[in-house]
Design a protein that fits this description.
The protein is an alpha+beta fold. Helices cover 53% and strands 9% of the residues. It is built from 18 helices and five strands. The protein has a five-stranded antiparallel sheet. Helix 8 packs parallel to helix 12 and helix 15 crosses helix 18. The relative contact order is 0.11.
Length: 409
């Protein structure tokens, strides 16, 4: 059977501009690029519409009072989504540059089958409707650069069977909180009778995912996250927890430690456009400080750890080093296996630059990564993203892409 062409793919963009005139100018530019539907309306438009349920209600984002939004739908045909990825990345960059040039920023968006997005497109403030318009695609489509070799696979004993891991984690919770009156949510869940009598987990990854969600729902730090840090650190230090699971938990701590910095990097264009000063949310700050306090204990057994665990420990130390002297030295980092020219060596250079305090070395490490890593290249386009914030935002994914597979081997 011969398959037909893939369905048309749609991408909806959202830009915020400081005035109606500027928003209309951006809308006209998007029409010239071939976007099919383009609407311009004041921010929180539906607050001013008597027929809408949001009429008269407080703004969902009062900082943008008086700003205008441009919503557009671009349609692409002839290729499946995977083949379009490098091109769509360049389009995101182009539209972000356009908004930035006009004193604004891009935020949000959606993707899906073009027919579905076109039907759902909110036409309030519709300025351009070009029923057959498509964004012209280059021929051939761009492709992502070939990354360097990653280096030899890390030696790791694996994450362990789910039953083994659950028992080890519950044992630590019982030792720490079994007799406490006020038990942190992360342990209360594990010590609850319903959990003990529940269905067994089919995989260790599923259990660790639930644990991570309790600690930081959808990756958001809260007071619960701060309270959970000592428990996560205790699990990493516990000899009864399999090495692969400890590695994944260290990766979770790394992601939590950079939450504030990563948010600052992702919102850098918005912050600059609004003339704001970034203030790290209290929960993000307190989480990072809590992890910093655990670092001496986490790195105390450095010599007895596997190289994979040491690598994540070094990155974690780099992520919290602004809170005090990093407990991992440049000499210890240099002893880890990262052959020159491998992707691991580039990530190692980024960790080293963070440990040493950044400066020109940090920007150089980011530039070298951007040559072959499309995500780093895209995030680096904003002139408003501080190098340290940018480095923190990309570090967890870079590191865990390297060591993560070893944990579940």
């Amino acid at each position: 059977m011969t398959l037909g062409p893939p369905p048309a793919w749609g991408v909806q963009y959202s830009a915020y501009l400081p005035s109606e005139d500027v928003a209309r100018a951006v809308a006209d530019e998007l029409a010239e690029l071939g976007h099919r539907l383009i609407a311009v309306r004041i921010h929180d438009h539906f607050r001013f519409d008597p027929a809408n349920f949001r009429y008269g209600k407080p703004s969902t984002d009062p900082e943008l009072e008086g700003w205008w939004q441009v919503f557009s739908l671009a349609v692409h045909t002839g290729h499946d989504r995977l083949a379009l990825e490098p091109f769509l990345r360049s389009e995101r960059t182009r539209i972000a540059d356009m908004a930035r040039l006009h004193g604004g920023f891009t935020q949000g968006g959606a993707e899906g089958h073009a027919a579905t997005l076109e039907e759902a497109f909110t036409r309030a403030g519709l300025l351009h409707e070009l029923p057959t318009a498509e964004v012209m695609l280059p021929d051939p489509l761009p492709v992502d650069p070939q990354p360097p070799a990653s280096g030899a696979q890390w030696a790791c004993s694996g994450a362990g069977e789910p039953g083994e891991v659950v028992r080890a984690v519950v044992a630590v919770a019982e030792r720490m909180y079994g007799s406490a009156e006020d038990i942190p949510d992360v342990a209360a869940w594990l010590l609850d009778e319903e959990f003990a009598l529940g269905e067994p987990y089919e995989s260790t990854g599923e259990f660790l995912g639930d644990l991570a969600d309790i600690v930081a729902h959808q990756g958001t730090c809260t007071d619960v996250t701060v309270e959970a840090v000592p428990f996560l650190a205790a699990l990493v230090r516990d000899g009864g927890v399999p090495t692969g699971t400890r590695l994944i938990l260290l990766g979770d701590l790394l992601r939590l430690s950079v939450t504030g910095r990563a948010t600052a990097a992702s919102l850098s264009d918005r912050i600059a456009a609004l003339g704001s000063v970034w203030a790290e949310p209290a929960a993000d700050h307190m989480t990072r400080r809590a992890i910093s306090r655990e670092m001496p204990g986490l790195s105390a057994n450095w010599d007895g750890e596997s190289d994979a665990v040491r690598f994540v420990l070094a990155a974690l130390a780099a992520a919290v080093s602004s809170d005090g002297e990093a407990p991992v030295t440049r000499r210890q980092l240099a002893a880890l296996p990262a052959p020159a020219g491998t992707s691991r060596a580039y990530v190692m250079a980024l960790v080293e630059a963070l440990l040493l305090g950044g400066g020109s070395g940090l920007q150089a490490a980011l530039d070298r990564l951007a040559v072959w890593n499309p995500d780093v290249a895209e995030r680096s386009r904003s002139p408003h993203a501080a190098p340290r914030d940018l480095a923190m935002s990309v570090l967890p994914d870079l590191l865990m892409a390297d060591v993560g597979p070893a944990a579940y081997r």
